[in-house]
Amino acid sequence: MLDVEVIEDPAIATVALEPMRSRLLAELAEPASAANLATRLGVPRQKLNYHLRELEAHGLVRAAGTRKWGGITERQLVATASAYVVSPAALGPAATTPARVVDRLSASYLIALAARAVREVGALMRRALLAEQRLATLSIDTEIRFRSPTERAAFSRELTAAITDLAARYHDADATGGRPHRVVVLAHPLPVTSPLGDAPSSPTATESQS
């Protein structure tokens, strides 16, 4: 089972995004039978089987052996991944790309960069799996609480200078056997979550500045 599967086919994305099927994919992180799922979710077996057939037909779940229960042999199914992401490629020409966003300091440009990463890394991951190779990537994720907008701006300048210096030192356009890599650095305010655990809300104007 994959940790994450990136869905690029629009038809498969449509199947996975249907609420009941999305719930089934989550439930099938561990192997289970249709009968077990029907009892767990309180859904009629016939209706559940219809959704499972659609998921299996589109390669989102697969057979995982059989299990005997009360004299009956039940077919087990399991999801192909622990979690799923829909690639912007599923939207075809309507998908966002960095080239379509003019303001490079906008939230739209940040989203376009993240969307491109999903699309590119998803495609690379599929090729690596077919070749039975590991895809070499680097991810850094941290949180910073800035004391003021002034310090945030200073951090941005220093980070930009550091990345520019590293890129200049290690980049070699003519290196024989070299392979180009994409480096993307993103920063955004953390979503605000209430103490009661409610869904994240948008930052206020003041919160967006720090």
Give a quick rundown of the structure.
By secondary structure, the protein is an alpha+beta fold. 42% of the residues lie in helices and 15% in strands.
Secondary structure blueprint with pairings:
Elements: E1 2-7, H1 10-17, H2 19-27, E2 32-33, H3 34-41, H4 45-57, E3 61-69, E4 72-79, E5 81-86, H5 107-130, H6 149-170, H7 205-208
Parallel strand pairs: 1-5
Antiparallel strand pairs: 2-4, 3-4
Helix pairs in contact: 3-4
Describe this structure in words.
- The structure is a single chain.
- This protein is α+β, with helices and mostly antiparallel strands and 210 residues long.
- It has 3 domains: 2-84, Orthogonal Bundle (Arc Repressor Mutant, subunit A), CATH 1.10.10.10; 91-137, no CATH class; 139-210, no CATH class.
- 42% of the residues lie in helices and 15% in strands.
- It has 7 helices and 5 strands.
- It has helices spanning 10-17, 19-27, 34-41, 45-57, 107-130, 149-170, 205-208; strands at 2-7, 32-33, 61-69, 72-79, 81-86.
- The strands form 2 sheets. It has a 3-stranded antiparallel sheet with strand order 2-4-3. The chain has a two-stranded parallel ribbon with strand order 1-5.
- Strand 3 (61-69) and strand 4 (72-79) form a beta hairpin.
- Helix 3 (34-41) packs across helix 4.
- The two termini are 40 Å apart.
- The model is unreliable at 202-210 (pLDDT under 50).
CATH C-level class of the largest domain is Mainly Alpha
Radius of gyration from the alpha-carbon trace, in angstroms: 23 Å
Give the N-to-C terminal Cα separation: 40 Å
Choose one word for the global shape.
elongated
